[in-house]
Amino acid sequence: xxxxxxxxxxxxxxxxxxxxxxxxxxxxxxxxxxxxKWDLKKVGVITVxxxxxxxxxxxxxxxxxxxxxxxxxxxxxxxxxxxxxxVEEEAQLFLALNDAKSVTAIDRYQAxxxxxxxxxxxxxxxxxxxxxxxxxxxxxGYVRCANTLLKIYERDPAALEDTCLxxxxxxxxxxxxxxxxxxxxxxxxxxxxxxEIDRGVFVKKLAKYHGGPGALVGxxxxxxxxxxxxxxxxxxxxxxxxxxxxxxxxxxxxx
Length: 255
Prior knowledge:
Elements: E1 5-12, H1 28-36, E2 46-51, E3 54-59, H2 61-69, E4 76-83, H3 87-97, H4 105-114, H5 118-128, E5 133-134, E6 142-143, H6 146-155, H7 157-171, H8 180-192, H9 199-207, H10 212-226, H11 231-244
Parallel strand pairs: 2-4, 5-6
Antiparallel strand pairs: 1-4, 2-3
Helix pairs in contact: 1-2, 3-4, 4-5, 5-6, 5-7, 6-7, 6-8, 7-8, 7-9, 8-11, 10-11
């Protein structure tokens, strides 16, 4: 992000606006916590960007919301004010300022889209080809493990395509198939055996897994309890075993 005009000013809380396209999801419990221990002297500085003559909050959303709940609309707060930023640059600054804070992976992903981050855009476009999207709803078609998707894509964009192809080919867009245990496990398999997998065979065998993807997650948890590795590795092991079962040739090696 290029250097832009920056200054400090004192602005009333009521004048501060929010852009939900890149802001993190509001945490009501955190707002309530701030309300309960409010001390204006400890609020610190709010970072804002003047756009269309309106100051949009980049960093400090929960503090502002707490002040508004306390009825402090006309109270002024010290702000670090940027001018001349585009929405994309605001999103980039949001990510930079919140790098070490408790911003969820999905929040970072959504802000990354606004900031035109190529990895986030690549993940979005790849998922869209298979009727999928990143989301926290847990509904069919939505993948919640944004970090896993980003890591798979960063390692190899084609690996994310194969992961989506195999999972949706076997189980469609069912939410159980998009559980992080299943997605991460499949990502491990694709990364390990790139080019060795007969996709058609793998899809047919996964589709017949007894109990479907939900059962796979349960079986992986049971296997992990007996082995010196985690549940996502266990899910990958089960997928490889499923693929290899009954094959006289072309079996995948143990992970």
